[in-house]
Amino acid sequence: MLHWAGRLGSWDLGIAEELLGPRVMHLRYDPLKQGLADQPAYFTTDAFPLHTDVSYVTNPPGLMLMHCVAPDPGKGGLVRLASCDDALSWVAPEVANTLRQPVFRFLYPPACPSGSSEKLAILAHGQWRFKYASMKFDREFSKAIEVFYRALLDVSQTLFLRSGDLLIVDNHRMVHGRTAFGHHTNDQPGRHIMRCYVNPSD
Q: What average pLDDT does range 123-128 have in this prediction?
């Protein structure tokens, strides 16, 4: 994965580790961390809703690389992907206009004291950012966000990553999520994904 990351662009994203996490993050169930409020949810076996990563910074990473070390033996943990542009084509103009308004704040990770981002648009200059569960906005925009999220679900597709697979996701155009998966046992390792971010080269 790191070989491909270096060929695609730069790992040096200029984002502090408390906001981004380690350069290479191991996404897998950790029973010692899953119950802690200040730990990211990717240490659990829970499903993830569709989202873009690191939406709370001004310049989120352009690409996300996911290398499957081990899939879930029970065939859970499917990656869900959706094109934001495809979803946009299904919503009314007034909904699309709401998405372009800089009226959304994106929450920082649980352990970060910063709180939330400045007010940002979901779509600006062709770049998307979206994380329904971690966005703050006035109630008047709720309906538009719900409509757009349903459109994302409607156009989404699922993918089962096998051991050795490498998935490259455009974090400025796509949202991703996952289905829930089972707990591992000592003799049967569970789902294990390695993730890193890259800003593509010009």
A: 97
